[in-house]
Design goal:
By secondary structure, this protein is mostly beta strands. The chain contains four helices and 80 strands.
Length: about 1000
């Protein structure tokens, strides 16, 4: 016959009740299946044996049941009915069952009281026995409710293995791997479990909320532990929370890490390792190029064999190594192999996505760039701005900026086309240039500027040891060097020699060269000390009276003629336009000054500077300048004052009023903006608006009154708000955000830990474990409801471990509600026709609920059945409208309509009982009672009708309606038979039984007395 599988031994029932006495029979029930897990049906022969050992040995009792009818797998046997038991059941035995001539099923160990596998003391106990399905050497299942101990009699877990001996306590799980058609795992879907899956030699431990550990997500020889982990390929390993190792031999550890690449490894938080043999560690890193390595924060290793380390760095080409922070990106020629023009090594020194940069770039062709991403020579140094250079020092520390030799390139911002090389000795010593080992120097420059050629030290500005030859300018015999207006020297033939006191005149006496003399009207002259013509005539002079001009159209005093004059007075050069209001403007030191308003596009300016334009693009105003990152000029104006100022060297803008140095060069960050009163934006790209706001770090923003944004990319808005953490935000009145990426909003709120958000007013203070990272015991979200610094409190506190506190700042459970000043209440409300409830789940499996039925107006607790609370009464199961303090339904089931207790005490205090009198019921009424045996049906009331079930149980007792006719006091008569059953209080029958016994005893006493008299008379008559 086909091989059979034993599923479950359901019940052992003994007909004898003495503990060590030999039982007469044992009832056994089970399910039998064939090898295809189908229930057997038909007639079979079953052999049952008892052994005193778990395996081997000789049977000490056996019997065979022939022609046993099995229907749909169910089999019932009465053991001992064929061969009576003749053994001592005080010992331990094992039961073995064989179907036909098949292989015996695995033996079942009997307890110390062998016929009571359920309970040692209660034959009628309703406990499930250990059961087994399957036969020897085949698959099967053992099931039992309770804990199992191996090596211990006091197991503390469902399976507890213990052995105190050295090397003992070993646990071994053995199975066979199936490479071709593995069976389904022992279980699937959501749940908390530790699972060994031999068909794929895989192990799982932890909690999952979906199909993460179903067969399709389990790789051969894989390991996955933690929360929602997946190891789906051969040899994959996934530990932590939300990790996934889907590549061959891949590894994913940490939180939300993924390793889809073969032999890939991902560690940390949200890292991804997608290429072959790649590694990604840290936070939000990616390694996608084969054999690449990415570590740090936000780094990417995209090229083959590439390495990326630090923060937000990217290695894009093959073999590329990138360190540091925010390096610049580019399009490589070859992301997989070697290209001479691609990068080999990069050190990034950027401060964010908005400002990436490289401190050093090394190309695969060997060219090294410092300050440039595209070096053109073996060493290419570049500094955007005024000066690029290399400094060489001999200082012990090597860091003194005022020492050493500098070789570089100078760039004049006001002369964009003027770039020149610079060699600068910053020591107070000569600068020497020599050849052929001439350490004395072929060219020597001394401190102070003396230059020697062939001589060291030079004693004059230019000291030449040897002949000087000037080849340019047409040299010739007797010629002399002369200078042009721009200082260019040329060779000229020697001509006029003029003593200082001589006079030379041109033809017609129109032009004179005089020392100091009045020439007369209409004559132009040149003099050393102020030779002029008349008041409105032109002349050129060096002294205080020289003028350059043209005669006006009118010479009359106060006329409207225009007379242009140039006067040298100290360093001033003034150009004058005569008008009734004296001059209208003049230049001084390269600057223009005016005494009135200036209009551009308007002849009637209404402000010091009035710009007016109409039409398309009319009225546009542009201020251009040049940003410099070194050798920056002073701000146009410093110190206190009211002004609007554009500072192009720093790309900064200011408008408003300051009372001190807030808008000095040292307090102005590059690309910063500050508006208002005493605002200060000293950070790179920072913004300060309002009254006394301060933004002191990169990309920080401070807006409002006395706000402070001191953290990188921080924001402070409101009144005295402070944002000091990286990427923090503080909004409101004295709000503070000091943790990494934290947010404080409201009134005197404080967010101290990383990623924390606080809203409300005066939240409680605490010391976080980490101000910059993620720690599960720190706060994540807080609603403060305090009223002052001495009365801080939190309405709600959410920790990073997911625990929520309402009324407590230290929740110890997922939801912790506390009211330190009174009653803690939780209110759940819904529509008047709906349920209000709290539901409970184990994973995705519904367990039960606590709530209220607003239609029927009762509270309930549900877990496979209801406990109803209504009008101060408790109804069990289907009793939704209890009429007793504790009301159970009419059901013969132990778990539905029956109760059990050690004792039930009834109030019977004399002090609460009055009008006491002897009961009139007694033996007469007892003799009228009719004890009956009956079958009691389960029932319920549905829509005003009594619904009687076919299910029930046989019982003995009385009929309430019959008893009511005799002793109505012990009967509960329903007010409405369509809503309630008749009831009988058997407890109240006790005093009547006592009264009947007393009456009966009186009759017995009387009969005994009469019998004694009869015996006495009989004795006397002998």
């Amino acid at each position: 016959m086909k091989q059979c599988t034993f599923l479950a031994a359901i019940l052992f029932c003994i007909t004898s009740s003495l503990y060590s006495q030999i039982p007469q029979t044992i009832s056994w029930q089970g399910i039998l299946q064939d090898a295809d897990s189908k229930n057997l049906s038909g007639t079979f022969s079953l052999t049952v044996k008892l052994y005193d050992v778990a395996s081997g040995g000789t049977a000490i009792w056996n019997e065979t049941h022939s022609s046993v009818v099995i229907a749909d797998g169910l089999v019932n046997l009465t053991l001992g009915s064929v061969t009576p038991f003749s053994i001592n059941f005080g010992d331990e035995y094992w039961l073995e069952i064989t179907v036909g001539t098949g292989t015996p099923l695995p033996r079942i160990k009997l307890s110390s009281v062998p016929y009571a596998m359920h309970s040692k003391t209660a034959e009628s106990a309703n406990e499930t026995d250990p059961t087994w399905s399957g036969n020897a050497n085949t698959t099967g299942t053992i099931s039992r409710s309770g804990k199992v101990g191996i090596g211990t009699s006091s197991p503390t877990a469902l399976l507890h293995i213990f052995d105190s001996e050295t090397t003992a306590g070993d646990v071994l799980f053995v199975g066979n791997i199936d490479w071709t058609t593995p069976r389904n795992p022992p279980t699937s879907g959501a749940g908390t479990r530790m699972m060994w899956y031999p068909d794929k030699a895989a192990i799982r431990a932890g909690y999952i909320s979906g199909n993460h550990w179903d067969m399709s997500n389990i790789g051969m020889s894989s390991v996955a532990m933690g929360y929602n982990t997946i190891a789906s390929d051969h040899g994959a390993t996934a530990f932590g929370s939300g990790t996934e190792a889907s590549g061959y031999g891949s590894t994913a550890f940490g939180i939300l890490t993924t390793a889809p690449g073969n032999v890939a490894t991902a560690f940390g938080n949200n890292t991804s390792s997608t290429g072959i043999a790649t590694t990604a560690t840290g936070h939000s890193t990616t390694a996608s190029g084969d054999y690449s390595f990415s570590m740090g924060y936000g780094t990417q290793a995209l090229g083959q064999f590439s390495l990326s380390m630090g923060k937000e760095t990217s290695a894009l080409s093959g073999y590329e190594v990138v360190l540091g922070s925010y390096n610049t990106e580019y399009v490589p020629e070859n992301a997989f192999g070697w290209s001479e023009n691609d990068r080999l090594f990069v050190i990034g020194n950027g401060v964010g996505d908005f400002a990436p940069s490289n401190a050093m770039t090394v190309l695969k062709n060997g060219k090294v760039g410092i300050g440039t991403d595209n070096p053109q020579y073996p060493l290419h140094v570049n500094t955007p701005g005024v000066f690029t250079g290399i400094q060489m020092t001999t200082d012990a520390a090597g860091t003194t900026m005022s020492d050493g030799l500098i070789i570089g390139m100078q760039y004049q911002s006001n002369e964009p086309s003027n770039r020149y090389a610079t060699v600068l000795n910053k020591e107070n010593s000569p600068l020497l240039l020599g050849t052929n080992n001439n350490y004395q120097g072929d060219l020597t420059i001394l401190p102070g500027g003396n230059i020697g050629i062939g001589i060291n030290p030079p004693t004059t500005r230019l000291d030449i040891n040897g002949q000087v030859r000037i080849r340019g300018g047409s040299p010739g015999a007797g010629k002399v060097l002369t200078s042009s207006a721009n200082g260019t020297a040329t060779w000229q033939t020697k001509s006029l020699e003029l003593p200082f006191s001589s006079t030379i005149s041109s033809s017609g006496t129109l032009f004179y060269i005089k020392n100091n003399e009045y020439l007369g009207s209409g004559i132009y002259g040149y003099g050393v000390f102020g030779v002029t013509g008349e008041a409105h005539d032109g002349g050129i002079g060096v002294g205080g009276y020289g003028g350059l001009g043209v005669e006006g159209v009118s010479k009359s005093a106060g006329g409207v003629g225009v007379y242009g004059r140039v006067q040298i007075s100290g360093t001033a050069i003034k150009g004058k336009v005569d008008n009734p209001n004296d001059f209208s403007g003049y230049f001084l030191g390269g600057k223009f000054y005016t005494s009135s308003q200036v209009g551009i596009g308007t002849e009637s300016p209404s402000a010091l500077l009035h710009v007016h334009g109409t039409g398309y693009s009319g009225g546009n105003v542009v201020f251009t300048g040049e940003y410099l990152d070194s050798y920056i000029s002073q701000a146009p104006v410093e110190g206190s004052g009211t002004r609007m100022m554009w500072y192009p060297n720093k790309g900064s803008f200011r408008a408003g009023r300051v009372t001190s140095t807030q808008w000095n060069k040292s307090n102005m960050g590059d690309y910063s903006t500050a508006f208002g009163y005493d605002t200060k934006a000293s950070g790179y790209g920072s913004i300060a608006l309002g009254y006394s706001s301060t933004a002191s770090n990169t990309a920080a923003s401070a807006i409002g009154f006395n706000t402070i944004a001191s953290g990188n990319v921080s924001t402070a808005i409101g009144y005295s708000a402070t944002a000091s953490g990286y990427a923090s935000t503080a909004i409101g009145y004295y709000a503070t955000a000091s943790g990494f990426a934290s947010t404080g909003m409201g009134y005197n709120t404080t967010a101290k830990s990383g990623y924390e958000t606080v809203v409300g007013s005066w939240n409680t203070d605490y010391t976080p474990v980490s101000t910059s990272g993620w720690n599960s015991s720190d706060r994540l979200f807080v609603i403060g409801n305090g009223t002052a610094s001495t009365s801080r409190s939190n309405a709600m506190t959410v920790l990073k471990n997911g625990k929520i506190g309402i009324g407590t700042a230290s929740p110890s459970e997922l939801l912790h509600i506390n009211n330190s000043t009174g009653t803690a209440k939780l209110r759940v409300s819904s529509a008047s026709t709906a349920l209000s409830e709290l539901t409970f789940y184990s994973g995705s499996t519904y367990l039960g609920a606590i709530g209220s039925d607003n239609t029927s107006n009762y509270l309930f607790i549900y877990h496979g059945g209801n406990i109803i609370f209504k009008n101060g009464r408790i109804g069990i199961q289907t009793e939704t409208n209890p009429t007793f303090a504790l009301h159970l339904p009419n059901s013969t089931s132990d778990g539905t309509g029956r109760g059990r207790a050690n004792a039930w005490t009834t109030y019977s205090d004399r002090r609460i009982k009055t009008a006491t009198e002897e009961i009139q019921y007694g033996l007469s009424e007892i003799m009228q009672l009719q004890p009956v045996k009956y079958f009691q049906h389960n029932s319920i009331f549905d829509d005003g009708k009594l619904v009687i079930s076919d299910i029930g149980a046989s019982d003995i007792g009385f009929i309430a309606q019959d008893i009511f006719k005799i002793i109505p006091e012990i009967v509960s008569v329903p007010d409405n038979e369509n809503a309630e059953l008749w009831g009988l209080n058997y407890e109240k029958l006790t005093p009547i039984l006592v009264k009947a016994i007393q009456e009966q005893q009186m009759k017995i006493d009387e009969l005994e007395r009469k019998l004694e008299l009869l015996l006495q008379k009989f004795s006397e008559n002998k």
